[in-house]
Amino acid sequence: MSQFWKPGAEKPRLVDDEEGGVLFFSSPSGYANIERQRQRLPVYKYRTSILYLVETHATTIIVGETGSGKTTQIPQYLKEAGWADGGRVIACTQPRRLAVQSVASRVAEEMGVKLGEEVGYTIRFEDVTNTGVTMIKFLTDGVLLREMMNDPLLTKYSVIMIDEAHERSISTDILLGLLKKIQRRRPELRLIISSATIQAKSMSDFFQTSKTRRRPEGEELGPNMESAVLSVEGRGFNVQIHYVEEPVPDYLRAAVSTVLLIHEKEPMGDILVFLTGQDDIDAAVQLITEEDQNRGRKSSGLMVLPLYSGLPRSEQELVFTPTPRGKRKVVISTNIAETSITLEGVVYVVDSGFSKQRFYNPITDIENLVVAPISKASARQRTGRAGRVRPGKCYRLYTEEYFAKEMSAEGIPEIQRSNLVPCVIQLKALGIDNILGFDWPASPSSEAMVRALEVLYSLGVLDDDAKLTSPTGFQIAEIPLDPMISKMMLASGQLGCSEEMITIAATLSIQSIWVSGWGSQKELDEAKLNFAAAEGDHVSFLNVYKGFLQSGKSSQWCHKNFVNYQAMKKVLEIREQLRRTAQRIGIVLKSCERDTVVVRKAITNGFFANACRLEASSHDGKYKTIRGSQEVYIHPSSVLFRVNPKWVLYHSLVSTDKQYMRNVISIDPSWLTEAAPHFYQHQRLKSMVH
Ligand code: CDP
Ligand code: MG
């Protein structure tokens, strides 16, 4: 009774036609059942080889198709083989928070233990582990990097599995460089690098340690320091690829009509659609649901669900529950479903050809999230998602010629397209002084590096010798936030508004405090107006927070005001943690009550680099960044949209048809020179003010 289709199997049946529904996502009906499922996964055949390689090699690289069982099985094999004995811990990192939570709960379920005991997870601001009990710990690569600040050799771990290495997230790359150093000091530490695509060669080159390494006297014969590579054969089914004949003008619309067409013409089986982010995903969910209803049939059996990080727990679970009999699930996802998590039951994939990617330009000093074309490697991964349970179909919303001639073969590692400020401060805090000489899997650009050093110098984090300043630099490195936010918190201690700044920092750490998806945009905009502050978005957050507290933290109040109750609870939680950090590093906790000038001054202390000025001749709200003279506009979701104060600071940029500033406050330009005299030449700014 396998739910997998073998090629040539009799008549295709529905995925959910099996007894008890789709096994992988239903709760286990018994231990034997779970054992059988585990043994059916492709990695199972390699269990002995994997354990042998890990035993004998310092580094093992494992390549295997998504869904073959790398993430959920290998940590369990290691535990079964004794790698967690004696209080040691097996770590498995993921670039994405949602993936950390989802695989940890899956593994806890398979092992029949309570999440947070033998199997736990840690993401920023959420630690679900039990020291001394947890044997397998899933965590984001960013959290593991932070742990190195207190335990530079990561001594509690016996094996560290760097998973999803093909994603080349910035933290993964930094970790790989650091782990290579740690291995030299701790030959007993084992690394597993696992990846869905074959970049194994460059990875194994990276971990090839010199054969002529001199053994320090007295050192026992350790493992082979050269890395081993193992490839897990998958068992995907054939996927038929369909291209569009002409380029589509609007991938969102095209995705919507493709889904409806599949639903109309094709046999049952779930649909996975790759779009780019919360905005277009929410829009697509709404459009498909509406059009499906408009077609007159009462219940056509479509269940349309979004999937992106930041989605509330309850909604995530819907995505993972087996599709009820007679229904067809449509999951509209970011590229999180590309390799990080596997959805069972998908037979059709619709690939927009785009994803949201971070791009940084060191010349203009602008970093933003851009909707950009994916690589061929990504397109192939997306296609593969359709062949998990039986032969499937993939609809690419771009032409075959475009795929062949214009798509790049591989994506660019994130470290080469990011602002390096957070990365540099972290390495400095770990005592790595020569950052350009660091052993990177892919080198960042020297322009970006120089920019980062310059910003950190202006923030007062680095001194003239590019060393962390004491105490500012060390304090900022200690706060688990972007250094610009940490700096604004630190400044608020001196300005007497730390309570307010901690609320703002907590709010900026979550995706949105507003509900989306129900009610109309107009209603939401009106609800927002109740809290709108003339000074800008950050001050409006404070109003929402105050209202929430005054309501007695009521969920009804949230509902009435279009505020996301779950998000507000998260803000409270993060706030508490940040308050503890603040106290530890000596920030005085104090409220400024209603003084919004000090609040904005504190923000300016962190975000001076993001200052913009309204163009004198502009009637359409055009701003220019002070540093790079780039054209930017206030995002329609901001309370300052159409208000257009002369001088503003923004928290981040998003770019669609134009570059939009998100989360904006108005400032007085004199605060800029006060906050960062080195950064803004006084004269130049003065001439702009007049
Ligand atoms: O890491 P890799 O992509 O190789 O596979 P995995 O995540 O370990 O998934 C192995 C199997 O476990 C797949 O069939 C998944 O569908 C299933 N799984 C699950 O049912 N629930 C999860 N939260 C994660 C995985
Ligand atoms: Mg995985």
Q: Which molecules are bound besides the chains?
A: cytidine-5'-diphosphate, magnesium ion
Model regions low in confidence, pLDDT < 50 over at least 5 residues = 1-29, 209-215
Q: Please report the distance between the alpha carbons of the first and last residues.
A: 78 Å
- Global morphology: globular
Number of alpha- plus pi-helical segments: 25
Rg over CA atoms, rounded to whole Å, is 26 Å
The domain count comes to 3
In round numbers, the mean pLDDT is 88
Organism: Prunus persica (Peach)
Protein name: RNA helicase
Pfam families: AAA_22 (PF13401), HA2_C (PF21010), Helicase_C (PF00271), OB_NTP_bind (PF07717), WHD_HA2 (PF04408)
Enzyme class: hydrolase
Which keywords apply here?
Rossmann fold, 3 domains, eight-stranded mixed sheet, binds magnesium ion, alpha/beta, 25 helices, six-stranded parallel sheet, single chain, globular, 690 residues, binds cytidine-5'-diphosphate
Spell out the blueprint of helices and strands.
Layout: H1 31-40, H2 47-56, E1 59-64, H3 70-80, E2 89-94, H4 97-111, E3 119-123, E4 126-128, E5 136-140, H5 141-150, E6 157-162, H6 170-185, E7 190-195, H7 200-207, E8 228-232, E9 239-243, H8 251-265, E10 270-274, H9 278-294, E11 302-307, H10 313-320, E12 328-333, H11 336-339, E13 346-351, E14 354-361, E15 366-373, H12 376-384, E16 392-396, H13 400-406, H14 421-429, H15 446-458, H16 472-478, H17 483-495, H18 498-508, H19 521-529, H20 537-550, H21 555-560, H22 565-584, H23 596-607, E17 611-614, E18 623-625, E19 631-634, E20 647-655, E21 659-666, H24 670-675, H25 682-689
Parallel strand pairs: 1-7, 1-8, 2-5, 2-6, 3-5, 6-7, 9-16, 10-12, 10-13, 11-12, 13-16, 15-20, 19-21
Antiparallel strand pairs: 3-4, 14-15, 17-18, 17-20, 18-19, 20-21
Helix pairs in contact: 3-4, 5-6, 8-9, 14-15, 16-17, 17-18, 17-23, 18-20, 18-22
The structure holds cytidine-5'-diphosphate and magnesium ion.
Pfam families: AAA_22 (PF13401), HA2_C (PF21010), Helicase_C (PF00271), OB_NTP_bind (PF07717), WHD_HA2 (PF04408)
Enzyme class: hydrolase
GO molecular function, one term: helicase activity
